[in-house]
């Protein structure tokens, strides 16, 4: 799980919490990792019989009731964020007064391990980045800002599933608590956006900056800035542009440099607004690259090994996240450490060394590093003084700074002396300037939930400037009202500083895609790509839709619904089997009714004579009763009786015996001969029944011969 801070080596000491039962439910099995914000344990959920991760905050973070309340609120907010790319939050509570959360346990490695194995190709790097931006976009749409995006907080499941981002809400809760109690911002120096360092303001743009640093690191195998201390790296983030990765990766396409630059601009107003916008630009970038450009990779750096195994398993998820068609579709957080079974949920330094300056979680005084001075008076001396102040901030974060350093240059001593005289000589006027005059600061008013006009009036009434607002979807804030602002509510600004609001577009509306005729898997992908969730899946027989394909959806195709709506689908079971009923002896009308009741239809009807079946009744059917392999809607042919066949007794009078016999038999009659006077003349005299009588075919006729 992500530990919310940089990892460090654990001493081999048995943890007293091992074996403890928390909340009569979670049995702590072993300790996975310990970081700057929390300790992560593997636990067994006895109630649901599953393995989970229990993240226990460090006690010093939970000293204030404000933090506990904020932590619980953020945990609930993160739990509502349902996305396959977000580590699921199951539960939260307290252990001996210390807050904990129960999270999904993700087995696998993390992005830091992957980066340690060497740079990636352009295609691999952008594919993984897209997987980070997708859940981050869902969080931004829900009004959540992560604040601590870094490789340790991106997990790569061992089964090759989509990458997972962890610690949503946790970073926000801890950072707000730190700002409230100490005036500091907590984070990993290399990934902190400049505005977080200078004013503590956090918006989706800050998360985009962090992801941009990750892109740089995936491509080059190293962080943009190197320094001896985190404060120096933070200084460079504020005062220097992130270098183009092509400086280290020959042949890197210009489009990739432009993507990294758009995500990491120092001025947040010039940076991409949110993760969805960054993902859109990334996909456009990928679409403009050919196979050779996607295969560009920094040479002369270590790579392959287990990194290639992870990338191979993750390839399908990466292609889906980038929006590549035809290749198949689109926690724990933080650091990872393999346990004895090869599973991992946190990562500690394996060699016992301290992590690099750019990977350690640090607490920086907000505003200790100001925005770069672009005035004509800015020179190397000013920057040197600023760096000195940063060094002293790293060693001592108290508000009052003492203990001047020895060995200062004469020029520096002169500058400090002048500063002291200004303070002593202008104390009264200086006090007025910062308390009543134009140098005073005011808190950003709470404009959340107000209309744009009302919010603007309130901001300008405080002496602040109303910046050009941005717009975002919100499930909880009505259209036209303020969702949030940057800097955030309560941050103190100088008069004339700008406040930028995020105005709600209302609940995002999505059109239901037409999934009829698709397989269930294809329909699930189409629904997910449309930004909707798959609802109930039921099965039904269909005469027209092939087995395994979707018959219909609810809501139907083309319906515009809230993005949180679940789309139910009905999948075809194919044609419904039918049993052929026995209709022999029935009238044609009754036989037709019986067939229809069985789901069958009347086919061809023919007539035939029958000595045993009365006229108008069914003699037989095709197929016969109880035949198998037939389905509803099939037809059944019937043979209907014409009754017995009738013939007319022919007139054979005067014929010879032989001729008369032949004529009667030709008519279908059976002949019996009666001789009178011994049949002396051999001539037919009469028949019984008499000639012209209608009798059943096959009847016996007596022929009298004289």
From TrEMBL:
Which InterPro entries does the record associate with it? Kinase-like_dom_sf, PASTA_dom, Prot_kinase_dom, Ser/Thr_kinase_AS
Family matches, as SMART domains: PASTA (SM00740), S_TKc (SM00220)
Q: What does the UniProt keyword field contain?
A: ATP-binding, Kinase, Nucleotide-binding, Serine/threonine-protein kinase, Transferase
Q: Which Gene3D superfamilies match?
A: 3.30.10.20, Phosphorylase Kinase, domain 1 (3.30.200.20), Transferase(Phosphotransferase) domain 1 (1.10.510.10)
Q: Where is the composition biased (Low complexity)?
A: 332-345
- Annotated region Disordered: the residues are 321-409
CDD domains registered for this protein in UniProt:
PASTA_pknB, STKc_PknB_like
Asked if Kinase is a keyword of the record, the answer is: yes
Domain PASTA: residue ranges:
437-505, 506-573, 574-642, 643-706
EC number(s) recorded for this UniProt protein: 2.7.11.1
What this protein catalyses is: L-seryl-[protein] + ATP = O-phospho-L-seryl-[protein] + ADP + H(+); L-threonyl-[protein] + ATP = O-phospho-L-threonyl-[protein] + ADP + H(+)
GO terms (BP aspect): negative regulation of fatty acid biosynthetic process
Bias type Basic and acidic residues, positions: 385-395
Protein name stated in the entry: non-specific serine/threonine protein kinase
List each copy of the Protein kinase domain by range.
Answer: 26-282
